[in-house]
Write a structure and sequence with these properties.
The chain is α/β, with parallel strands linked by helices. The protein has 3 domains: 3-103 and 202-264, Adenylosuccinate Synthetase, subunit A, domain 1 (Adenylosuccinate Synthetase, Chain A, domain 1, 3-Layer(aba) Sandwich); 105-198, Adenylosuccinate Synthetase, subunit A, domain 2; 267-423, Alpha-Beta Complex (Adenylosuccinate Synthetase, Chain A, domain 3), CATH 3.90.170.10. It has 11 helices and 20 strands. The strands form 5 sheets. Strands 9-7-5-2-10-1-11-15-19-20 form a 10-stranded mixed sheet, with helices on both faces. Strands 14, 16, 17 and 18 form a 4-stranded mixed sheet that branches. Strands 3-4 form a two-stranded antiparallel ribbon. β3 (41-45) and β4 (48-52) form a beta hairpin. α2 (76-88) packs across α6 and α3 packs across α4. It is globular and about 65 Å long. The two termini are 15 Å apart. The model has no long low-confidence stretch (mean pLDDT 94). Bound molecules: guanosine-5'-diphosphate (GDP). Guanosine-5'-diphosphate binds at residues 8, 12-18, 39-42, 44, 300, 331-332, 334-335, 413-416. Residues 8, 12-18, 39-42, 44, 300, 331-332, 334-335, 413-416 line the site of guanosine-5'-diphosphate.
């Protein structure tokens, strides 16, 4: 068994959570290596239905150790509330099965305020932030203006550090945005209410991962969002503020020596996108409403209706390249069962010609989708568990995608439940 990363190929919300939940069976550790509480992985299993934001999706498997690596935006308040929520549904979370890297940086209370204040200032030019403080957090992390989780064990250092940061941040809050300043009392309350509670889970996660690797344990790296939201390779500036690519997993997890042999890219059978920015294959009107309703496409974190569209072969091929995916899980094929004919975005029309290359972000507003239709299957496939039992039209749809993206589709998901899967290998 090799180390494996499960990553999104498109705009996020592809169903990574359900794939991690399924594949953790074969792994000893699940590691989150980037992002924060700004997106949600939906998992349905024997404990119920969960929208996980920060917790790794291996938290439901007995014997699996879950790690929040140094690359995540560690929000103690969100994390603690999520832990309480998941525990209330009967899932055990202990320092044995959840480990937080002492090198993860902390998302401070003002990061969320700054996110909301900046979106307000931008008004109709906003980027569609989830207002969880992720962009201000990562900006501050790279400016070296936040604290590491491990500082919780050095109260004197922490207090002096927070005092300096607060004085600096209050200038922005009050003078730029006209907002209320923070006080040390407010920060002490936050430290007591949340940071103290997560402290028992904090450890030298890098050392733990190195030992696990040396002992031959199998590690699964779990990404958030997808290729097209990657800070460097995505549709900038409509990206997230971290790297969603598998290549970042060794750095963000705390195991720079990790060799990831298997990259499972998750692709949805159609396209969805949350927030602003170019979305070439977007559908509108009744066609969009029908697809949104069939796929129940509303944000796990925000409840916002997602933008929907045909599968975009141009963007998906690019996403596969960016992730260096070795195999693909195609999810939500069952959602398309109502369609008589299925739209497929095969190329973009751009600058008077047609292209199958993913354009530079600034060129994307001018791109239009070239849509071709393939026959639908118009029957319920949610109970199918074997490739041969899938209707021919559904098989053809999968094979068409596989050929276009140049990567084997080894899993076809036909429902949200753990066992609603067709394995093709
Ligand atoms: P993630 O962030 O990539 O994990 O994706 P989300 O959790 O935001 O979105 C996936 C949604 O689709 C969740 O509600 C899943 O329960 C659901 N889902 C995943 N796979 C399937 C599938 O094959 N069919 C159907 N109908 N729903 C699915």
């Amino acid at each position: 068994m090799a180390h494996c990363a499960i990553v999104g190929i498109n705009w996020g919300d592809e169903g990574k959570g359900r794939m991690v939940d399924l594949l953790t069976e074969n792994y000893d550790l699940v590691v989150r290596y980037q992002g924060g509480g700004n997106a949600g992985h939906t998992v349905i299993n024997e404990y119920g239905k969960f929208a996980l934001h920060l917790l790794p999706s291996g938290i439901f498997r007995r014997g699996v150790v879950n790690v929040l690596g140094n690359g995540v935006a560690l929000d103690p308040e969100n994390l603690w509330e999520e832990m309480e929520q998941v525990r209330s549904q009967g899932v055990e979370i202990t320092p044995e099965n959840l480990k937080i890297s002492d090198r993860a940086s902390i998302l401070l209370p003002w990061h969320r305020d700054l996110d909301a204040l900046e979106e307000q200032r931008l008004a109709d030019k906003k980027y569609g932030s989830t207002r969880q403080g992720i962009a201000p957090f990562y900006s501050d992390k790279y400016q070296k203006k936040t604290v590491m989780v491990g500082e919780l064990f050095y109260p004197e250092v922490l207090k002096a550090h927070l005092t300096d940061l607060m004085e600096w941040k209050n200038l922005t809050l009050t003078k730029v945005y006209g907002a209320q300043p923070y006080t040390m009392e407010m920060l002490e309350k936050w430290l007591d209410s949340y940071c103290e509670k997560i402290k028992p889970f904090v450890c030298d996660a890098s050392a733990f991962l190195r030992d696990a690797q040396a002992a031959g344990k199998n590690i699964l790296f779990e990404a958030q969002l997808g290729s097209l939201r990657d800070l460097d390779y995505g549709i900038y500036p409509y990206t997230t503020s971290s790297n969603t690519t598998a290549a970042y997993a060794p750095i963000g997890s705390g195991l720079p020596s990790a060799k990831i042999e298997d990259v499972v890219g998750v692709v949805k059978a159609y396209s969805t996108c949350v927030g602003e920015g170019p979305f070439v294959c977007e559908m509108f009107g009744d066609e969009a409403d029908a697809l949104r309703a069939a796929g129940f496409e509303y944000g796990a974190k925000t409840g916002r209706p997602r933008r929907v569209g045909a599968i975009d072969l141009v963007a998906t091929r690019y996403g596969v390249e960016v992730q260096a995916a070795t195999e693909i899980a195609l999810t939500k094929l069952d959602v398309l069962s109502y369609m008589e004919k299925i739209p497929v975005c095969v190329r973009y029309s751009l600058n008077g010609g047609e292209t199958d290359r993913f354009p530079f972000p600034a060129a994307m507003n001018a791109a239009k989708p070239v849509i071709e239709y393939v026959p639908g299957w118009q029957c319920d496939i949610s109970g199918v568990r074997a490739w041969d039992e899938l209707p021919k039209a559904a098989q053809n749809y999968v094979l068409l995608i596989e050929k276009a993206i140049g990567c084997p589709i080894t899993y076809v998901s036909v429902g949200p439940e753990r066992d609603s899967i067709i394995i093709r290998k």
